[in-house]
Amino acid sequence: MFPLSETFLQTSTLFVELASTEFMRYILAATGLHVLLNSGLRPFALRRRIRSDQPPKGQIRREILTSARSVLVFAGISLAAVWAVKMGWAQVHQDPDTYGWPYFFLSVAILIVGHDTWFYWIHRLLHDKRLYRRWHHLHHRSFKPTPFTAFAFNIGEAALHGLYTPLVILLLPVSYLALFLFSIHMIVRNTIGHCGVELFPSAKSGRPFFDWLTTVTHHDLHHASPDWNFGLYFTFWDRLMGTEHPDYLKHFAATRTSLSSLETVGEKSTARPISKRMGLGAAVMIAACLTSLSADADQSAAELERLSGSWVSEGYGAVVKLHSCNQPPTELCGTLIWIWSPQSQQHLGIKMLWGFRFDGSGWRRGEIAIPGRNQVFRSDIQMIDLDTLQVKGCAVIVCKSQIWRRLDSLPHVGLPR
Ligand SMILES: [Zn+2]
Ligand SMILES: [Zn+2]
Hints:
Elements: H1 2-38, H2 42-47, H3 59-86, E1 92-93, H4 101-126, H5 129-135, H6 137-140, H7 155-162, H8 164-171, E2 174-175, H9 176-193, H10 216-224, H11 236-241, H12 248-255, H13 257-266, H14 274-307, E3 309-312, E4 318-324, E5 331-339, E6 351-358, E7 363-369, E8 376-385, E9 388-395, E10 398-406
Parallel strand pairs: 1-2
Antiparallel strand pairs: 3-4, 3-10, 4-5, 5-6, 6-7, 7-8, 8-9, 9-10
Helix pairs in contact: 1-3, 1-9, 3-7, 3-8, 4-9, 13-14
This protein binds zinc ion (2 copies).
């Protein structure tokens, strides 16, 4: 009995150690980034945020709790990996120089590229409608992801992600240091990918400077439009398989307008020595940011002007007054001013739409509430012509569109303007 109890005690201790290390890594990375973006880097984050609004109340708490559960799943699988190493089935060595330093760096690269491939195909599988609801739905409850979304998985999904490392060490001799660097890279990229602020630099063309890497916009778009962008670290699988969001680069350029303008301004000086270019950097950055921000604000204000007024939803269901909801006017809101259903009259005057921002072609990433239904949908608004709007509402992966008509363009029916 005694040796069995000792084995049980050792196994339990190891499980607790593995789970605490994994959880500390997650919570430190997510909290560190969250605090940084909301304190010291807040002005930077406000300029480069992908979404204007905050995640709903309670989301972060749910994400931390479900991530803690994923960590327990990871720890259970790691325990099996430790056992495989003890049995001699997997080769993990202490000295990173065992096969020479070139092999060490190659092994880290293989771990990362292999993980991206594993993630892409597992992720595609999880979006199959037979698996989605039970295996992946939880991760997509975060329409507006935060760094804490990183491990917010259903149990089955956590198990599939956790299996990667034990499987790869069966095939590839790696050092503990290589595994450690791989895990740090994984949690850093994962939390950054969910942070809602575009941290990746753009090239002069407005495309990502490291176009082969997934940017924050890339994964953020996956949460907004789950049929696209399945990759984790790199863009090549999405491009090879045709699953990159058709407007990804446009969205990226929209979040990085200030830097794109900066680099366009800086283009003339590329022949100068680096030190001189750096000397000019601060002044150019300030001037370009101010210019581009004011250009953005002007464009949003002009578009808001075109859109402002009363609109009738499909089938004369409701009249909604669209207007700006901030100063300077960059964000679109809508107030319900008339509704067909006599049972819904108490909702008159509510704010029915909010949070839409103009991305150069349409009003994106807003939310729409249906009067009388305790539910909010993600929504985009596209102006088809001066008197016609296409209003799209999405719940998880199901989207529906409606045509709204400008009240003034309809035959007079005595509706409030
Ligand atoms: Zn995600
Ligand atoms: Zn997904």
